[in-house]
Amino acid sequence: QITLKESGPTLVKPTQTLTLTCTFSGFSLSTSGVGVGWIRQPPGKALEWLALIYWNDDKRYSPSLKSRLTITKDTSKNQVVLTMTNMDPVDTATYYCAHRRGAARSDWFDPWGQGTLVTVSS
Amino acid sequence: SSELTQDPAVSVALGQTVRITCQGDSLRSYYASWYQQKPGQAPVLVIYGKNNRPSGIPDRFSGSSSGNTASLTITGAQAEDEADYYCNSRDSSGNPVFGGGTKLTVL
Q: CA dihedral defined by A73, A74, A76, A77, rounded to 10 degrees?
């Protein structure tokens, strides 16, 4: 059974750097084809993909946020870490991590962590 | 702005069939995956690939694709299917992208 759980601060101040950790079990990030992604959802709004890291350390970022994001993995700890710099109140959202799999012409996120609400406020 | 377009809201009578659509150029090359999200909960995968359901997803959920449009069909909608539904595929750079979501109301 695959599970993921996000952890990190619930409140950050504007201009600060956010660091979120996704701790997972039930799979290895050294297995070919496997990835872990971060997705966020502002209150009452749609899902927005942020970043993705694959078993081979290939990293992908949302073009609109690329300059502020860094994603890394620690295979031995079964963790993926996302950092987002220069936080702003518009970054207030629930942040999810999710297991990523793919096949020919298809990718999907399954399962997802429970999410963690991050509020940006002074 | 999203490269995948969904209708903001759709309604269906209890027990009837409803189709939720997702449009985008990338859907000509990649299949969409579909997620159900109920209030206060994390999204749950309901359809992936050509038309695959994860374990535990009822068979009233099905997926299809034609041209630049992917569809999620619920045949015999139940009250518990009332939720937000999101499609996901790739953008022109090959990165993941989500649609804007469709709020499904079961009347």
A: -110
The answer to whether B98 faces chain A, any CB pair under 8 Å, is yes
Closest CA to B2 of A89, A47, A42, A92: A47
Q: Any chain B CB within 8 A of the CB of A5?
A: no
- Whether A113 contacts A99, CB under 8 Å: no
Kindly state the tokens that stand for A67: 């300059």
3-state class of B73 per DSSP?
strand
What is the gyration radius of the CA atoms in chain B, in angstroms? Answer: 13
Mutation for B interface: A36, A106, A117, most B CBs within 10 A: A106
Measure in Å the smallest separation between the Cα of A75 and chain B Cα atoms: 23
Half-sphere exposure of A88 (CA within 13 A, CB side): 3
Residues A100, A108: Cα–Cα separation, whole Å: 6
Would you state the pLDDT for residue B94? 86
- Which residues are registered as beta bridge partners of A77? none
Give A22-57 pLDDT, tens digit per residue. 999 999 999 999 999 999 999 999 999 999 999 999
d(CA B54, CA A38): 21
Question: pLDDT at position B2, please?
Answer: 57
User: For residue B36, how many C-alpha atoms fall within 13 Å in the half-sphere facing its CB?
Assistant: 19
Which positions of chain B have pLDDT values less than 50?
1
